[in-house]
Amino acid sequence: MNTALPLLAIALAYLIGSLSFAVIVSRVMGLNDPRSYGSGNPGATNVLRSGNKKAAILTLLLDAIKGAVPVLLVRGLETPMGWGPDLAAWAGLAAFIGHLWPVFFKFKGGKGVATAAGVLLALEPGLGVLTLLTWLAIAYTTRYSSLAAIMAALSVPLYQMLIWGASATSLALVPMCLLLVWRHEGNIRKLFAGEESKIGQKASGAAPAAPAQPPSHHAQYMQHKKTHSRHSHPHKGKH
């Protein structure tokens, strides 16, 4: 098998993953850069702290889609190209790494929760659904997105081994889950310190700066009167 094409597929998956939709959506919708407020993480949860639910939902969906697309594309080409079934998993890992270290955004990316969900749903829908249900259950009861993400990530290898068994896919899933937990290292410290933000909690500096307000009609009138008075008595006080 030609190794150049699989490597090209993995490289393209990384480039797709490098599209930081939290930043892109925020720019298009006139919001502040999500890296400048809250947790500083360019992800859907931090975008939600801007108070704009539409932007957060768009970010969540697009980040998940960019994880699923490379997997589905490689799966569609497996038979005609003669690729093994594990290449799709490595493409998913590449997209996930692209989200963490995006080449288009100075290698400063997010934590990869939504992208990992997209990868899992495309690779093994049952595993993806189980992981999402785990995240939802923990997020609903604790209101901590980070804790839900960490517990859901740790559950993925367990679900994979107990239900689907060990496979070549597991070799790509394990590092993805470990990287996701590692990216939450700061959140883990905040959780233990009781300083972690909860879902929906608005962060200071998240809203776009308010435009400067024009002077009131009264202020304009007083300024005009003052200017007119100076022009009407140019030599006043110089007798």
UniProtKB/TrEMBL annotation:
One of its GO terms (biological process) is phospholipid biosynthetic process. NCBIfam families: glycerol-3-phosphate 1-O-acyltransferase PlsY. It catalyses: an acyl phosphate + sn-glycerol 3-phosphate = a 1-acyl-sn-glycero-3-phosphate + phosphate. Residues 203-239 are annotated as: Disordered. It is found in: Cell membrane. It comes from Vitreoscilla filiformis. One of its GO terms (cellular component) is plasma membrane. Its EC number is 2.3.1.275. Its main location: membrane. Probably interacts with PlsX. The chain crosses the membrane at residues 87-105, 117-138, 158-182. Keywords: Acyltransferase, Cell inner membrane, Cell membrane, Lipid biosynthesis, Lipid metabolism, Membrane, Phospholipid biosynthesis, Phospholipid metabolism, Transferase, Transmembrane, Transmembrane helix. This is Glycerol-3-phosphate acyltransferase. PANTHER family: GLYCEROL-3-PHOSPHATE ACYLTRANSFERASE-RELATED, INNER MEMBRANE PROTEIN YGIH. Pfam families: G3P_acyltransf (PF02660). Residues 203-220 have a biased composition (Low complexity). It is a multi-pass membrane protein. Pathway: Lipid metabolism; phospholipid metabolism. Residues 223-239 have a biased composition (Basic residues). The gene is plsY. It is an enzyme of class 2 (transferase). Belongs to the PlsY family.
